[in-house]
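# step 3/5: fold
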Amino acid sequence: MIIEESDFLTEEEVKNIRSEFSRAPWIEGSVTAGTNAREVKNNLQIDRNNTSCVVIDQYISAAFMRSKLLQSSLFVKRVSVPLYARYEPGMKYGEHVDRSVMGRMRTDLAATIFLSDPEEYDGGLLMVQDYFGTPSIKLKAGAIVVYPATSIHEVSAVTRGTRDVAVLWLESAVRSHENRRILWELTQVRDSLQGKEIKPETQTSLGFVLHNLIRQWVET
């Protein structure tokens, strides 16, 4: 299940984050990769010791707090410290699987927040292997895409311009990807019926199924 939210960050937040990007120091991205991923990772990252990260973190945290889509539908329990990455021409991140645990957090989901508009660079496609194929994802600045961290994924080589992103990982209160998908689908059905004339008993039955599945699957 791959979920996109086009207006995760406001235009003003994107502008302010890019301003921090313009003056932050950059280091080799391979320093934060696992042993296997280090061989295929070629990008730049802002040094987490720099004060710019503190400023940007606040924008990202505020966006997560107000995102009803992510909070209610994905049952987000913990969010990792973000990494701020840059891909210049020739840079890419080959096929890899994210580490299962970061610190004391289980990585159920991965998220990419786009900070460059699509017309600013060529290449740099996020490709996630899913049940239904391998979509190529390239979204507008301020958008976020969330996908299973269990998936094999990659970023194709940038051939022109600069691709700036924030990447981070989420632990869900629902451990199973399949269970999260079922709850997601049921939530979409429930929300689509709001404001429509349906029998009260139908609404009650839907709530009965949804909330009792949540009781079974959510780990508090």
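# step 4/5: annotate
The longest strand covers residues 163-172.
# step 5/5: archive (pending)
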